[in-house]
Amino acid sequence: MSIALVAREVRPGEHRVAATPETVRKLVQAGLEVRVEQGAGERAYLSDSAFEAAGATIVPAGAQWAEADLVLKVAPLQEEERERLRSGSVVVGFLSPHGRAEVAAGLARANVTALAMELVPRITRAQKMDALSSQASIAGYKSVLLAANALGKYFPLMMTAAGTVQPARVVVMGAGVAGLQAIATARRLGARVEVTDVRPEVKEQVESLGGTFIDLPIAESGVGEGGYARELSEAALRKQREILTERVAEADAVITTALVPGRPAPRLLTAEMVDRMKPGAVVVDLAAETGGNCELSRPDEVVERGGVRIFAPTNLPSQLAQDASHLYARNVLEVALLLVRDGTIRVDLSDEILAAMCWTHDGKIRVGAAPQAKGATA
Q1: Where are the beta strands (DSSP E) in the chain?
Q2: Phi, psi angle pair for 14, to nearest 5°
Q3: Where are the domains of the chain?
């Protein structure tokens, strides 16, 4: 019987957990012995006793990694965690595989199989494993709440005895999962929402949520592999900024969500564009971890310029740790079940999903070995 270990996250600010009592019960039913590090779920309001009731054994944090065949995580492996992994073990989590050659080399030398949740391919069979989407939806929702809380005015139209207050104007950059959830949330709060995306195909989705799509007369296509956006040329980006400058200048809030798989985030909001925004406006940049869509963003800091505040949170889903953990744990469960055969962990790289997710295996770095393994950033 193989051992699955649910890690207590050590990355600062990470409150999510990679399993819940619901998913632990299913892992036990699949024939695994499940061990949960003490306090692993407490920041997501999941008690050790609830895990025990589901069939898990509670173990001291950091003490039993050398016995684990499968380690389930949320955040990228910290140095102390990488040192605990034993040869031949499998780790599943958001591993941040792009641009971390040194970490990959270390995992390969340690003969660890690393399966990155960022690299789940966008195919029908893998939909239940798509943790990028489940967590991006939460980030999009929370970004609007952050903007509404920081803004010094109402989001909805308000008609009062003292007069009428016009609704807030929100510009959302990027209509992927996070962007669509931001549109829906801003509309629910009563804001007027304008949306830009380099993929004209998303216009119908934007309008179905009540947003106004900003048409960009750009000749080149912004559609990349798997439906993700691709990086535009500098000339196309300049044209995009010219069109957006006026819309941004009138906005009360700008939410930026544009990401390109395996690349730094495109710079959509320049310092000059921010300078034209009105005092009191806010920017929430969801791409801060990969360089930011806004030129002025600083990860996990609030920058103020000319009365405009720029927020650049790198882990908004962690602020909704309870639901974020439940959704993420279900994604991870589906991956784990691909690995279990008669209670034993086996990595079968003939499976297209596992092949796409595989960062390191059998002493080798494998990202890019399969067509689907070109992945995406969270």
Answers
A1: 3-6, 33-37, 57-59, 70-72, 90-93, 113-116, 158-160, 163-165, 169-173, 192-196, 212-213, 253-256, 282-285, 302-305, 308-311, 340-341, 344-345, 358-361, 364-365
A2: -90, 115
A3: 3-130+321-367, 136-318
Which of 103, 128, 101, 130 lies closest to 118 in space, CA to CA? 130
Give domain 136-318's CATH architecture.
3-Layer(aba) Sandwich (3.40)
Among 347, 374, 369, smallest CA distance to 113 is for 347
CB-count exposure of residue 39 (10 Å: 0-12, 13-18, 19+): middle
* Helices 177-188 + 131-150 axis angle, to 10: 40
pLDDT in tens, 256-313: 999 887 788 989 999 999 999 999 999 999 999 999 999 999 999 999 999 999 999 9
pTM across the whole model: 0.90
User: Whose structure tokens read 């009191």?
Assistant: 280
At 227, the pLDDT band (50, 70, 90 cuts) reads: low
Confidence of residue 226 (pLDDT cuts 50, 70, 90): low
Token pair recorded at residue 184? 């829906």
Report the amino acid identity of residue 170: V
Burial of residue 319 (number of CB atoms within 10 Å: 0-12, 13-18, 19+): middle
Burial class (CB in 10 A: 0-12, 13-18, 19+), 2: buried
Amino acid letter at 220? E
What is the H or E stretch that residue 133 is in? helix 131-150
CATH dotted code for 3-130+321-367: 3.40.50.720
Report how far Cα 228 is from the mean position of its chain's Cα atoms. Answer: 14
Q: Which residues, in sequence order, are bridge partners of residue 365? A: 360
pLDDT at 203 over 50: yes
Q: Which residues are catalytic?
A: 122, 127, 130, 133, 228
Backbone dihedral angles phi then psi of residue 288, each to the nearest 5 degrees? -60, -35
